[in-house]
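User: Sequence in, structure out. Go.
Assistant: Echoing your sequence, followed by the structure tokens.
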Amino acid sequence: MAASFHGVKRVIFFDILIRIFTILFLVVSALMLPTRLVLGEDLTPPAAPSGFSATPGDGYVDLSWTANVEPDLAGYNIYRGTETGVYSPTPINGGLLISESATTYHDDTVSNGTTYYYVITAVDDTPNESSISNEVSATPADSTAPSKPTGLTATPGDTEIDLSWAANPVEEGVVGYNIYRSTTSPVLLTTPINGTLVTGTAYTDTGLTNGQIYYYAITAEDGAGNESVLSDEA
């Protein structure tokens, strides 16, 4: 009987010991839970930015939006693609958020003639990222006109005048020239006498009246349709 009694006591002792260790384990586990679960971390993202717009320029796109008002706002990410609805997973601002106080962004990593599609998100301090904004698109384009042509000369003949000039620099992308004529000076930028762009550096104007004074000026035009100012007259 005594042995049996002592055996029961040992069972009760070990049972109590196991219960104590179980309680201690649960307490320690609770204390070691991630801080965000204990403190109730903010899991609510900011609102998607509104008023997003894009304005193209020569080799750039300017973007603007309405500022978010969340007190814990950390900044913005802008995503870009060349197909509608398809954007690079890496924001064009890289790993550094656009400042929370900013409402504009100048994107000069674009190519003229390509259409770009943009969306923007807001990010808070947690960081939670909002859903994407409305999509906007823009096509930057060359808007820089060539320099005015130089060296224009006019050599008269029988009812015709031969014109010649110096070629514009190659880097300006000139695809041709327009020729303007008048019987009075100054020559005005009206309708050129050439039907199509003159691709060389010489032109013969025929069907003229002998004895009449003619004044000429030319312009250079690039592949984007930008036209220079008039040259000096000849």
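User: And one key feature?
Assistant: The chain has two helices and twelve strands.
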